[in-house]
Amino acid sequence: MTRNYDAAKELLSETLYQAFKGFHDLKSHEAFLSYVFTIASRVFYKSVRNKDDFVEDFDFDRLTNNEIEPDVMLDITFLRQSMNELSDDYKETLVLFEIEGFSRKEISQILGVSEETVKSRLFRARKKLAELMGVGDESRVE
Q1: How far is the C-alpha of 62 from the C-alpha of 49, rounded, in Å?
Q2: Three-state SS for 47?
Q3: Which candidate, 53, 54, 26, places its Cα nearest to that of 38?
Q4: Are both 47 and 32 inside the same structural domain?
Q5: Residues 15-50: tens digit of each pLDDT
């Protein structure tokens, strides 16, 4: 979310503080992960609305690894650039589902939207990402 290590640590700290304060209200311990992600999303978006410094450009060059093949690194860079072109709603939903492994129901709880909205966002995000990456587009040079 933050694209910055220090801002992510600050977000994590605030999230854990909020989670600890409300932990006694948690009805099901199985829902803890969703509970924490919900808090993190709310803290993050509140900070964006208040123009806090949580959101900064991520230094992608820090991730470069000499063991990664150049063509793989190029694919990663292309994917990252394409993901950044998605709307925040699409990107967040796609990351929570595809990368974090949350179910549609858990994502709906985290984001405070219906499961149908999550399904719709996933469908549209995948479609838009495929368009941006030229998947199925014969005119794209491989």
Answers
A1: 28
A2: helix
A3: 26
A4: yes
A5: 888 888 887 777 777 777 777 887 887 777 777 655
